[in-house]
Amino acid sequence: MNKIIEARFIGPDVKLFRIEAPKIAEKRKAGQFVIIRVNDTGERLPLTIADSDTSAGTITIIVQGIGASTKMLNTLNAGDYIHDVVGPLGKASHIENFGTAVSIGGGVGTAIAFPTAKALKEAGNHVISIIGGRSKEFVILEEEMKQVADEVYPTTDDGSYGYHGFVTQKLEELLKSGRKIDFVLAIGPIPMMAAVAKTTQPYNIQTVVSLNPVMVDGTGMCGGCRAYVDNKPVFVCVDGPEFDAHKVDFKILMQRNKMYLPQEKESIEHFNHVCNYDKMYDAEAKKTNHEVTHG
Amino acid sequence: MADLTTKERYKIERHSMPEQDALARSRNFEEVNLGYTFEIAMEEAERCIRCKNPVCVAGCPVAVKIPDFIKMIAEGKFEEAASILKEDNALPAVCGRVCPQEEQCEAVCVVGKKGRPVAIGYLERFAADWERNNVKIIEPKIPAKTGKKVAVVGGGPAGLSCAGDLIQLGHEVTVFEALHEIGGVLIYGIPEFRLPKEIVKAEVESLSKLGVNFVTNYVIGLTETIEELKARFDAIFIGVGAGLPYFLNIPGEQLNGVYSANEFLTRVNLMKAYDFPNNPTPMLDVVGKTVAVFGGGNTAMDAVRTSLRLGAERAIICYRRTEQEMPARVEEIHHAKEEGVEFKLLVAPLEFIGDEDGWLRKVKLQQMELGEPDSSGRRRPVPIDGAIETIDITAAIIAIGNGSNPIISQTTPELIVNKWGNIIVNEGNMKTNMMGVFAGGDIVTGGATVILAMGAGRTAAKAIDDFLKNPESW
Ligand SMILES: Cc1cc2nc3c(=O)[nH]c(=O)nc-3n(C[C@H](O)[C@H](O)[C@H](O)COP(=O)(O)OP(=O)(O)OC[C@H]3O[C@@H](n4cnc5c(N)ncnc54)[C@H](O)[C@@H]3O)c2cc1C
Ligand SMILES: Cc1cc2nc3c(=O)[nH]c(=O)nc-3n(C[C@H](O)[C@H](O)[C@H](O)COP(=O)(O)OP(=O)(O)OC[C@H]3O[C@@H](n4cnc5c(N)ncnc54)[C@H](O)[C@@H]3O)c2cc1C
Ligand code: SF4
Ligand code: SF4
Ligand code: FES
């Protein structure tokens, strides 16, 4: 059981949690993740460790509520407990002084890119951060990124904030302007990562992506997280999660992530049902209490 | 029963195991074998001729005092029977259910020379179950504390048996487990219908009562390294199992619907995907569909029988040799057949074929025939030219074994492993090349059996005790 110290929404359906996990806080490196279970029947959810505070013994995770399990997690608040937290899992990011490094985050991918951007800065890189979102409210962690990056460019698909266009268009603009870029890290939706890989390929820039396949154990035991890199299977949880973007088969990754679509739908319906039931029950309970205290 | 003569004992027929009806059970997750009643158990126990030189004991990897515990059952002293068992076997309720008895204790039983052997496994299970269900107050003998601390890495049978012995020797024991539940393969691999999880939980609880400290969600190598553990503990036992599934390396393995047996069984057993969405971990819908399982071991039998229970219309074992060479327990093969599992023998998969969206649809199978014996002495299957068949399937489950998990070896460069990643130990005492670090179970031998893993845990516990008493002896 791990206590939630702080919980707040930082974007639509995107919630930041600071959780007590001293051992993980002490050990974790940029690029690693934890697996959590919200309750005792919970799914095992992989989530990147966005930050840590060794003196407070806490780690930070940032969660986008997209399905039943993440939405359930996002109903928790400071003072609540998460049933299981295990980690740090996966390999740490490979960090060195490349020169100029661009960190690209799309949506909640910005949270996953954040720790690596920070580490790249600490290693002496000139760090450029591109933060993409559909519209203004989906651009997250801009302030935090400004603390660790030399340049920060928010982009929105609809032009409601920052640069009007996709992250790849901003990247292309930087490349065309003749900026020397030595390293690119891209994390976000699979089509975005695939597009970044395509953008940097002709320039021969070392490009790394962090993959997000469906996982179970996160320790190499099940092989469910396998992805194909250089036409060979890899187990993302132990061999990754970061890989050479120019070698990843994004089509297979995308296809495999659709494996449970029908079940995910059923799961969210079940969640909504249970949730509404709980609300009804709570309302009922309040009414009863009311009557008891005043009756 | 009055004292029987040996001749009279030989006349008693082996008692079969009462079991759930095959059709009914093939659709539920309840245990297949129902267990002997005490009348049956006492009668079966009379079949043992109480050999002066009991060869069965030599057939058991942990040398359970077989005639002694069986005699107690014959006399109706079930609690005594259980305590004799526990002197050599920390998990008799588990071993009675999952040991390959036909290759071990029962294979050599003298009674089996003329008829069928004494049902040692069923009797072992009976005594252990009886104790669990009837003896409420377990008074653990609290041994004098030695003040020494031992870390056990991995909560599978190897780790549990090592922990059980060490705690009784008075050492302080902490078990670190990566998953959120203790038990290893007993929890995530072997299904409920063969080994109810409640039994594993009861065993873990009794170790807890003895004072073993269990820490779940803790991956040694990542949360804390072996090197760091060495600073906090006087000795370490590594029992992390095999657990890195092999794939076939044929085209189409990336398709949706292709699983390793580990993933398939973990989703169903550990994560309870059969009770979706109450348990939110999903599983591919196989209701009314065809599932093909590749392999012929216990894992393959567990996966194929689980598929039936999830509602598959056809569940097929595809194995490249013949039934004779199948490594699975005879009882599992027999049960699978009774439940309606189809066996396709002498076939090897060539390719998985999917639709344009990446979903598995078919598998192409190559017919084989047996050729010359190979290095294992078994006749090697060779392809028959042109004999290729394609069948429609929705799910494929690959159960061809496990390699060793890389987390410990990658994070412990000093530890010597062989080219397959198995930790190298001195067989007599399970010592690794690192002082104070011992290892045993599947991580040393590669995928083997529960009883061998437990035997290794026990050998290590003894060696650890010796080492703690006299560290200079290393
Ligand atoms: C290494 C890694 C790091 C991640 N870091 C973050 C993070 O920091 N913040 C964040 O919001 N998300 C992160 N994710 C994604 C997150 O794990 C999924 O969004 C979450 O599991 C979805 O669960 P759900 O039940 O809410 O949604 P569902 O409706 O079940 O699924 C929605 C989609 O999420 C993916 N998914 C579903 N189940 C799993 C699973 N068990 N493991 C992985 N993916 C799954 C699938 O693509 C699926 O289509 C990470 C994933 C990985 C593999
Ligand atoms: C499906 C299946 C069916 C089987 N059926 C039978 C049968 O009928 N009869 C039989 O005798 N044998 C059977 N076996 C084989 C038997 O289960 C194994 O040989 C036995 O479990 C090995 O025990 P172990 O303790 O070495 O490892 P495991 O049981 O694998 O346990 C190892 C434990 O260590 C944990 N771990 C791994 N890495 C770490 C780490 N870095 N830090 C912390 N913890 C870690 C794992 O999560 C696991 O819980 C079967 C195996 C499978 C997979
Ligand atoms: S532990 Fe296994 S091999 Fe030994 S007596 Fe029991 S069933 Fe037989
Ligand atoms: S060999 Fe068979 S008959 Fe002899 S003691 Fe063992 S179980 Fe009894
Ligand atoms: S999640 Fe099971 S092997 Fe990676």
Please outline the helices and strands:
The complex is a heterodimer of chains A (295) and B (474).
Chain A: E1 2-11, E2 14-20, H1 22-27, E3 33-37, E4 45-48, E5 51-53, E6 58-64, H2 68-73, E7 81-82, E8 84-89, E9 100-106, H3 109-122, E10 126-133, H4 142-148, E11 151-156, E12 163-164, H5 167-176, E13 183-187, H6 190-200, E14 206-210, E15 226-229, E16 232-235, H7 236-239, E17 242-244, H8 250-256, H9 261-294
Parallel strand pairs in A: 9-10, 9-13, 10-11, 11-12, 13-14
Antiparallel strand pairs in A: 1-2, 1-7, 2-6, 3-4, 3-8, 5-6, 14-17, 15-16
Chain B: H1 6-11, H2 22-25, H3 38-45, H4 55-59, H5 66-74, H6 78-88, H7 92-98, H8 105-108, H9 111-114, H10 120-134, E1 149-153, H11 157-168, E2 172-176, H12 185-188, H13 197-210, E3 213-215, H14 226-232, E4 235-238, E5 258-260, H15 261-270, E6 290-294, H16 298-309, E7 314-319, H17 330-339, E8 342-345, E9 347-354, E10 360-373, E11 379-392, E12 395-398, H18 407-411, E13 437-439, H19 442-445, H20 450-469
Parallel strand pairs in B: 1-2, 1-4, 2-3, 4-13, 5-12, 6-7, 6-12, 7-8
Antiparallel strand pairs in B: 9-10, 10-11
Helix pairs in contact in B: 3-5, 5-6, 5-10, 6-10, 7-10, 11-20, 15-16, 16-17
The complex binds flavin-adenine dinucleotide (2 copies), iron/sulfur cluster (SF4) (2 copies) and FE2/S2 (inorganic) cluster (FES).
